[in-house]
């Protein structure tokens, strides 16, 4: 079955620094990838997505990189702020299948 | 525009009981998915409904079931509760579902505790 794993369960960064959260996936047939942010007591919140025909996509202060060769996904957050403290999940999906497979999550802590 | 609404927010049940959770999707969204979130297993897909039809089901026992109504609202039911069913149950909606690679919008979840 699919396996989406994260390299680091926790990450602490200083406010203002850049953060990089990594994710490995195992299903080479997955063609859609999403990053979610989950704050305490809330459901996951969509951050950014990328399709397999792209290597990079940028949003506001966030960039997602996709390396299909090694089945690796990363989320870069620029100028990390205290409000970015949360658990971040990567998820993968395959066109034709209407469910997401989530990674185990990385807890990002921003130190003021 | 209202987000995904899940009720109740918290539930406490005992083993052997059954429970029904409710989800109201974002207006206009026809796909509703359910996920179970636990510290040990993370987020796991339960099932997805579109236009009152279950399109996909995850690897959960038959005690977990769901349905969708004509107004796209959805319910999930867990019968004969077990301690391991304690989890945060999340509902997500989208216009047509992940088949078309659309964003899922999640509710805040129902925290179920089985004693």
Describe the protein:
The complex is a heterodimer of chains A (112) and B (115). Chain A contains no helices and eleven strands. Chain A has strands at residues 4-5, 10-14, 19-25, 32-38, 45-51, 56-58, 62-67, 72-77, 86-93, 101-102, 106-111. In chain A, strands 2, 4, 5, 9, 10 and 11 form a six-stranded mixed sheet that branches. Chain A has a five-stranded antiparallel sheet with strand order 1-3-8-7-6, with no helix packed on it. In chain A, strand 7 and strand 8 form a beta hairpin. Chain A is globular, with a radius of gyration of 13 Å. In chain B, 0% of the residues lie in helices and 52% in strands. Chain B has strands at residues 5-7, 10-13, 19-24, 31-38, 42-50, 53-57, 64-68, 74-78, 87-94, 105-106, 110-114. The mean pLDDT of chain B is 92. The interface between A and B is medium-sized, with 27 and 27 residues.
Oligomer: heterodimer
Strand-and-helix sequence of chain B, N→C?
EEEEEEEEEEE
Q: What gyration radius of chain B follows from the Cα positions, in whole Å?
A: 13 Å
- Give the count of helical stretches of chain B: 0
Secondary structure class of chain B reads: mainly beta
Gyration radius of chain A (Cα, Å) is: 13 Å
- Measured between the Cα atoms of the first and last residue of chain B, the distance is 37 Å
The percentage of residues in β strands of chain B lies in over 45%
Report the β-strand fraction of chain A as a percent range: over 45%
* Unreliable parts of chain B: none
Q: What's the total number of strands of chain B?
A: 11
Shape of chain B: globular
Topology (SSEs and partners):
The complex is a heterodimer of chains A (112) and B (115).
Chain A: E1 4-5, E2 10-14, E3 19-25, E4 32-38, E5 45-51, E6 56-58, E7 62-67, E8 72-77, E9 86-93, E10 101-102, E11 106-111
Parallel strand pairs in A: 2-11
Antiparallel strand pairs in A: 1-3, 3-8, 4-5, 4-9, 6-7, 7-8, 9-10, 9-11
Chain B: E1 5-7, E2 10-13, E3 19-24, E4 31-38, E5 42-50, E6 53-57, E7 64-68, E8 74-78, E9 87-94, E10 105-106, E11 110-114
Parallel strand pairs in B: 2-11
Antiparallel strand pairs in B: 1-3, 3-8, 4-5, 4-9, 5-6, 7-8, 9-10, 9-11
